[in-house]
Amino acid sequence: MRFAEINLLGVYVAPIAVMMVAAWLVMVPLRLAATRLGLLRFFWHPALVVFALYAAVLSVIVLLAGWAGG
Q1: What's the mean pLDDT in 36-62?
Q2: Radius of gyration of the chain (CA)
């Protein structure tokens, strides 16, 4: 598994930064759906649940990128 820097408009960006933005873009509709369905009210600390879900989504993206690149 080898991650190389990504060239964005002449600026080299670490691959994890791009993956973090992708995970955030996935989390926006998930968080919106959880809020509208009232799922977050069942948890003691909703922000921790959202963060844990973000970490899980980011982990899946990193694993998929490593698997596809290797």
Answers
A1: 95
A2: 15
**Tokens of residue 20, six digits:** 């973090």
Task: Determine the residue type at 26.
Answer: V
Q: Which residues contact 57 (CB under 8 A, 6 or more apart)?
A: 23, 26, 27, 30
CA atoms within 13 A on the CB side of 32: 6
Treating both helix axes as pointing N-terminal to C-terminal, what angle do 46-69 and 15-37 enclose, rounded to 10 degrees? 140
Tell me the domain boundaries of the chain: 6-69
pLDDT in tens, 25-40: 999 999 999 999 999 9
**pLDDT at residue number 21:** 96
In degrees rounded to 5, what are phi and psi of residue 13? -120, 140
